[in-house]
Input
Amino acid sequence: MKHIALFLLANLVYHFSFCQQLIDKTPFDLVDNLIFIQLKINNHPDPLNFMFDSGAGVTVIDTQIGDKLDLKISGETKIGTAGKTLTSKTSDKNQILIGERVKLNESSLYLMDLSHLSTFLKTNVDGIIGVDLLKNFITETNIDAGEMRFYFISGFNYHGNAEPIQLISLESDLFGIPIQILPKGAKESINLVVKIDTGASNYLTFHNNSVSENYLLKPKKRHKVSKGFSLDPTITSNVRGKVTFAKIGNKKWKNIPSVFEIDPVNEVSKRKADGLIGQELLLDFNILYYLKDGIVYLESREK
Output
């Protein structure tokens, strides 16, 4: 009887500790592989549909939504995108509420027209949130459970089964991870850095500088054109192809569809990474972001 009591007590302490770390959780919707969560701004009763984009260095809200919420404009700032630099109105000292207990106070919002994203995705894109959230909370995207979970940074203990991957600091508080790839036709693999980008629905994208420096495209070979846009509605024309394999940690993929940037518009962006990894590959994992310690955990999903 004594042993049973000690066992129950140990389990109670463990679960209490774990629950103490969890602040709140919220369900998400997947739209074209992209994660959307509901949140509220400045105690406004209507929830807004925000995309979770780990590649977004600022929190963006659609201009029309900003007008509806009567946001106070603090000034203007320039935002660099994959296409060009845009001027955005800013609103400071806002409160963002996710669920019942996840609060971001004194938040700056950048007002931009997101109607092109709403049209393309066939869903309301009221805003985009990324790094501002990840800097303030340990954040988990649990695809198996269909929810985002938020934990206190202080006293957090990881209980999963994944090995930590050291993050590599990029521009605008963004972050990347090392990846090993074997380009088509190459005999030796190369090591690159890719930004973790939950705002990209594809597999892999390689930036202009990396494409040329690492000879990722075979000369004289015809490639299919890939058109796209981002936060900036400017249409870019790049090419599609594949890499023989890609490997992150112990996870390896073969014959991966990839976008190779060749459009001169993309060269304007000052990006430190060689490319980005998008949701087609990231959805293989439940991901826990621990930016304070500069690490990320990629947990293989239950399949």
